[in-house]
């Protein structure tokens, strides 16, 4: 990891709780957009993997990686790895916040501005 700030030391239970909150928050936002007729994104979750399917056929996959205590994001624009640092999921190369990258990728793939925010704890 290229960041000067070390990843947070998390217990397995804390990691699981944090990642469940992230995936649940993404699902909740996608459901809100569907209900408000903003965009029709299909969210399918299996365990620690969440697949977002866009109307144009593209996908974004968010996957937890418990052994590494990371979250991985795969989109048309590339693949990204995130570690929990000081309360934020940070890209292991660029330090960009997970939700900024997710919002950018989702906006690109949906063809309209979309914004995801971290779950409140």
Structure description:
A six-stranded antiparallel sheet has the order 1-2-3-4-5-6, covered by helices on one side. Strand 5 (78-85) and strand 6 form a beta hairpin. It is built from two helices and six strands; from the N terminus they run αββββββα. The relative contact order is 0.19. The protein is globular and about 40 Å long. With 121 residues, the protein is of the alpha+beta class.
| Beta-strand content estimate | 25-35%
Our Rg estimate from Cα atoms comes to: 14 Å
Instruction: Give a short account of the largest sheet.
Output: 6 strands, antiparallel
Number of strands: 6
Distance between the termini: 26 Å
Helix/strand order, N-terminal first: HEEEEEEH
Structural class by SSE content: alpha+beta
Query: Could you list the spans in which at least 5 consecutive residues all have pLDDT below 50?
Result: none
> What general outline do the C-alpha atoms trace?
globular
Percent helix range = 25-40%
Question: What's the number of helices?
Answer: 2
- Going across the biggest sheet, name each strand in turn: 1-2-3-4-5-6
Give the helices and strands, then pairings.
Elements: H1 12-35, E1 42-46, E2 49-53, E3 59-65, E4 70-75, E5 78-85, E6 88-91, H2 98-110
Antiparallel strand pairs: 1-2, 2-3, 3-4, 4-5, 5-6
């Amino acid at each position: 990891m290229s960041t000067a700030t070390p990843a947070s030391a998390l217990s397995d239970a804390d990691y699981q709780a944090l990642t469940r909150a992230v995936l649940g928050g993404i699902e909740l936002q996608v459901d809100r957009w569907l209900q408000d007729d903003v965009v029709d994104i299909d969210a399918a979750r299996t365990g620690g993997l969440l697949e977002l399917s866009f109307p144009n056929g593209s996908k974004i996959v968010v996957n937890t990686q418990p052994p590494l205590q990371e979250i991985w994001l795969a989109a048309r624009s590339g693949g990204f790895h995130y570690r929990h640092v000081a309360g934020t999921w940070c890209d292991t190369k660029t330090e960009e916040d997970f939700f900024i990258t997710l919002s950018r990728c989702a906006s690109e793939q949906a063809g309209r501005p979309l914004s995801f925010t971290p779950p409140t704890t």
